[in-house]
Amino acid sequence: MSEVNKSIVRRFVDEVVNRGNLGAVDELLSPNYLDHDALIPGLPGGREGAKRLYALLHAGFPDLEVTIEDFVAEGDRVALRSIWRGTHRGEFGGIAPTGHQIAFENLELLRLQKGQIVEHWSIVNNHNLLSQLQNRGASHE
Q: What Gene3D superfamilies has UniProt attached to this entry (predicted)?
């Protein structure tokens, strides 16, 4: 079961996060999906919020790529440490494109049930990411 769950999470990262295939969200996330730590406050919950999040991320960072550095699974839980990289080429979080590359580390825990992701927790310093974009953008004005 753990290896199957890892393959589901890896597929989500590859298809949705890296390729921007929002159609895969309905297949890989449960209809009752709950994100406990939304990257962008104010988005709707569930699958629709996930679709909007990844659409916004890909609009702001068209070359977004996530590399899984550590990947552990036990029972219905999968944990991963990943590095997110991209170039700020579109508006994101109200910040005009800076053209700068970003990179940040993310720690995630996901719970799966019946072949779908049902819950997600994440530790990423959202404020720090937005602050870096704002500071970098301000330095070129």
A: 3.10.450.50
